[in-house]
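Hi all, long-time lurker, first post. I run a small reading group and we've been trying to get comfortable going from sequence to structure in the token notation. Rather than ask abstract questions, I figured I'd post a concrete chain and ask someone more experienced to write out its structure so we can walk through it together at our next meeting. Sequence below, copied exactly:
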Amino acid sequence: MNSQKSTPDIQELVEKICIQGCTITRQYIENLINFEKDNTQSLPTLLNETNHAQQKEILDELINIMAVYDNKDCDEN
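-- Answer (accepted) --
Happy to help. Here is the structure in token form:
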């Protein structure tokens, strides 16, 4: 049996974030940007097992997804 930690599935993490709604997704984007600038910031628990490259990939994916909404309010109901 392989005892190494499995690599987080980026797409699965992105989906877990987005399913929480636009407000939470925007908070993740802001948090990732702040973490990228200042590594003393803490990451949300969901992203604790990710490395820098994965965090960048998640950030880019979230930004692309949220660009669809172009500063419009999301229907979170």
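A couple of things your group might point at:
The mean pLDDT is 84.
Residues 22-37 form the longest helix (16 residues).
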